Peptide/nickel transport system permease protein
Amino acid sequence: MSDLATAEKASQPPPSWQSRARWTKAAKLAGWRAAVAFPITAFVSMVVFWLASIAPFNPLAAYLGAKFERVSIEQRAALAEELGINDAWIAIWGRWVRDVVLHWDWGYSRSMSRPVAEVLSERLPWTLMLAGVGIALGVGISLVLGVSAARRPGSTIDRFATGLAHLVQGIPPFVIALGAVAVFSLALGWLPVAGVSRGGADPTWGSIAIHIVLPATVLGLSQVPWLLLNIRTSVITALTEDHVTAARARGLPDRTTVWRHALPAALLPFVTVIGARLPELVTGAVLVETVFAWPGLAAATVDAAVSGDFPLLAAVTVLTCLMVLIGSLLADALYVLVDPRVDDA
């Protein structure tokens, strides 16, 4: 093979993510990870019920609320027997799993005065919306700043991007949230402070779009340090690879070389970091929702923890576990789709 042909082959970007082999392997991986997710979630729920059984927590008092002190000891004993509170924790867990799987009955939330299933169906979409927009903003900011910094190491944009990453890395998300409220809501009056609508009015898509700007931006910024520094390092490394060097030797524009040849190879570790950051994203979402009074699961979780609302706490814990597992599954599947080492034959 001539030197020219070798250079032509080396200068080609990694294989397209649209190939059938990639999608087949990604689908197999997703199916395997989905199958593994069920026993993991079951184990997590078992641990939750076991911890509740050894914790200084009176489920009957949580069930009765303010009526607990007015109920006689005999009535308490009869009610505990009726509810099965005195049974072994594994039996209680088994009944809970049966009700969830067969009837979608997650129990009754005393703190919210409604079935847990209704609380989840009402609040979970808000949490998913905030987390989705937040991670999208975080990924977008990290890609733009990280790639720009990697193109010119040591430049002004590089120092700004890395300095911003290290600064944000040392600030808790709730501090960033309070600072954003103080500046953009209270001082400048550009954006609303909290909620999803003004004056208690019914939310519209327009009001939601305005109210989500601050919380989603804060949540995205909380993930930028790790994502930005990772993509910067990965792009710098990718710029030294053979196919990128050959592309530059052919006289391709620097922007084309970076975005079409170096970036696809740099996305592999970047996708891995996104998957690893999912638990932190969930934690950050809880804090951000609390500061901005976002009507997601955070406020319900806090109320449930304070009042000992175990059915709601168990449901939120299991759903959080599922969201992390599903997010990790998607990250691994995306890794396969962008991995140039997958055989396209």
About this structure: The first strand starts at residue 108 and ends at 109. Residues 1-15 have pLDDT under 50 and may be disordered. The two ends are 21 Å apart (CA to CA). The chain has one domain: 17-57+106-338.
